[in-house]
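stuck on whats below:

***
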Amino acid sequence: LNTIEEISRKSHDVDQKLNEIEDLHSTLMTKHSVFDQILDVSKNKCLDDEDSCQHKLQNIVLQGVHSRDLDHCKKKLKILEQSREEILRRCNYLEKTLVLTNQGFEKTFDDIIERRSSFVKDNDLKLEIEDVQSDDENDVRKSETITLPKPQVLRSPKSNVDMTKIDKNDSVDVLMGSPIRPTQHTSTPKVVNVLVQTISLDRQTQCNRSVQTVEDKNENELKLYIRNLEDHFEKKNQELNEVMKMARQQTEEALVSNKEKNNLESRIQSLTETLNKRDRSNESLHATVDELRKQIDDMKSVQYTEIIRSKEAANE
């Protein structure tokens, strides 16, 4: 019973650990969502000053937090595996104790049956001894005795006494010289023991049957309880495996998301660099266009002045 209570306590601890893992999972999801929101809000503000971006420090801190959370989850998983092994060891020990208790119950039941049988023999099985005379003995006695009309007896016999059946207490004194031979009554005690013996055996069988049925019921109940515990532990193990798979998937997804974020950041940086280069090239092109326009205007003015001078010279 103590081992069963410990097993129930261990299962309760396992449930608590699973709840803690679920809480950690929810906190990780919220952290990822907050981080995504921060990146979405600040993606347009950190393009100019790439080296002095404040979110790099936050990214480093969050990476450390995630690594610590992963280490904590790994420790929790190791503790859960150790508790599972401890529970399995306790179950095996409980099965061994059940086998030993069943063997001990068999011995104690045998002792109880022997004690009950001895008690029944001492109290209930009272042997009754009767003087039962067979027909052969009656014939022999009839052949050996001589019936007289008036037997000379010191003491008058009792009324309605059969001469063939003489009790031990009713001793008859025969006169000396009488033709009656003193018959030596060999009392053949008949032990009326058959019925009593069958009753005792019936009692023993009833005791055996009752004890065996009670023992079988207890064994069946314990086996059912053990099976239920094994099913419960299997379910818990399946849940643990599922949680471990979910944690691994989440870690893989987190790594993939981090890689995607890094790739997106690198792409954004490359795009910003290209945009800056394009802006610079546009500015340089605008400057060259302005200079060319100035040069064209200067050339036009010079040509105009030369044309005027040539016209004036031709008129003169």
